[in-house]
From TrEMBL:
<keyword id="KW-0378">Hydrolase</keyword>
<dbReference type="GO" id="GO:0016787">
    <property type="term" value="F:hydrolase activity"/>
</dbReference>
<dbReference type="InterPro" id="IPR050266">
    <property type="entry name" value="AB_hydrolase_sf"/>
</dbReference>
<dbReference type="InterPro" id="IPR029058">
    <property type="entry name" value="AB_hydrolase_fold"/>
</dbReference>
<dbReference type="InterPro" id="IPR000073">
    <property type="entry name" value="AB_hydrolase_1"/>
</dbReference>
<feature type="domain" description="AB hydrolase-1">
    <location>
        <begin position="22"/>
        <end position="253"/>
    </location>
</feature>
<dbReference type="Pfam" id="PF12697">
    <property type="entry name" value="Abhydrolase_6"/>
</dbReference>
<protein>
    <submittedName>
        <fullName>Alpha/beta hydrolase</fullName>
    </submittedName>
</protein>
Length: 267
C-alpha cells in the first residue's frame, strides 16, 4: 500500500489501474479490503483508489486522538487531500454505509470533485436523539470491551446467514479494527447533518444500491435517496444484506459496471 501525509494523519491507500478515477470509501468497522472484489475487477478499466480511513485498517487515528471524535467532514477532507496529492481533479465516489455518508459529505463540500456518486446500503437522514445516545453508548462499550463481542453480535446483520462465504473476511475486519478509531467515528456519525436536501442538488448521475435483506439500511431508505436524487438508478441486490459487494460480488459488479459505462458515454 502507498501512503500520503496530511495535517491530520498518514493515510494509507491502494492505488491500482489507470483511466477514470474511482474512489472506494469503506464502511464501519471495516477497511479498504472490504472492496477487494471491486478493486480487482475495476482496476482493469479505472484507476481505483481505496483508502483505509482515519483510525481504520493501518491508517492511524492521528489528530483525532486529541478530540476523541472523527466527524464525517474530517473523513471527507482526508479524501479530498488524497485526491489532491494524486493529482486527481474528479472521481466517481462510491461509499457503503458510513462510507456512503462520507461520500454525501464530500459532495456537499466539494461537488466539483465528484464525477459520479454511488451510495450503497446507506441513508441520508440526520441522527435521532435516540440514535445519538445509542452511538455514544456503543462507542463507550467498544473502548471498554474491544471489538470481538460487537463483531460476534452483528455479523449476521452485516452478512446474511446464507452468505457464509463472505462472513470470515467481514468478521476478521471488524475484530481487527482499532476500537479507539471506531469509537471516534461513532461519535462523529452521531452529529452528522441531514443530507436529504443536498441530495436534491446532485448534478451528476448517481447509483443507489442496496441488499434486499439489509436490516441496517433497508430498501425503503434506498428508495428515498433514489427519489431525492435528480438523476439516479436504483439497484436492489437479491440474496444480500448490508454488504452486497462482498455477498454477491458478481451482481454488484454488474450493476456498477453498467453505471460506470454510462458515465463514459456521457463524457
Amino acid at each position: 500500500m502507498r501512503y500520503t501525509d496530511n495535517l491530520a494523519t498518514r493515510l494509507y491507500f491502494e492505488d491500482r489501474g489507470s483511466g477514470p478515477a474511482l474512489l472506494l470509501v469503506h464502511g464501519h468497522p471495516f477497511d479498504h479490503t472490504m472492496w477487494q472484489p471491486q478493486i480487482d475487477r475495476f482496476s482493469l478499466t479505472h484507476r481505483v483508489i481505496a483508502p483505509d480511513l482515519r483510525g481504520y485498517g493501518i491508517t492511524p487515528l492521528g489528530a483525532t486522538a486529541l478530540t476523541e471524535i472523527t466527524g464525517l467532514g474530517d473523513f471527507a477532507e482526508d479524501l479530498v487531500d488524497l485526491l489532491d496529492d494524486l493529482g486527481i481533479e474528479q472521481a466517481v465516489v462510491a461509499g457503503l454505509s458510513m462510507g456512503g455518508q462520507i461520500a454525501m459529505e464530500l459532495h456537499r463540500r466539494h461537488p466539483e470533485r465528484v464525477r459520479g456518486l454511488v451510495l450503497a446500503d446507506t441513508f441520508p437522514a440526520a441522527e435521532t436523539e435516540e440514535g445519538k445516545a445509542a452511538r455514544n453508548a456503543m462507542a463507550d462499550r467498544l473502548l471498554k470491551e474491544g471489538m470481538q463481542g460487537y463483531a460476534d453480535e452483528v455479523l449476521d446483520r452485516m452478512v446474511a446467514p446464507y452468505n457464509t462465504h463472505a462472513a470470515p473476511h467481514v468478521h476478521r475486519m471488524m475484530c481487527a479494527t482499532d476500537p479507539v478509531g471506531a469509537a471516534a467515528a461513532l461519535r462523529g456519525r452521531a452529529e452528522r447533518p441531514d443530507y436529504r436536501e443536498s441530495l436534491t442538488t446532485v448534478a451528476v448521475p448517481a447509483l443507489v444500491v442496496v441488499g434486499r435483506d439489509d436490516t441496517y439500511t433497508p430498501v425503503e431508505d434506498a428508495e428515498e435517496m433514489h427519489a431525492l436524487l435528480p438523476d439516479s438508478t436504483l439497484a436492489v441486490i437479491e440474496r444480500a444484506a448490508h454488504l452486497p459487494n462482498l455477498e454477491q460480488p458478481e451482481e454488484f459488479d454488474a450493476v456498477l459496471d453498467s453505471y460506470l459505462r454510462s458515465l463514459v458515454r456521457l463524457s
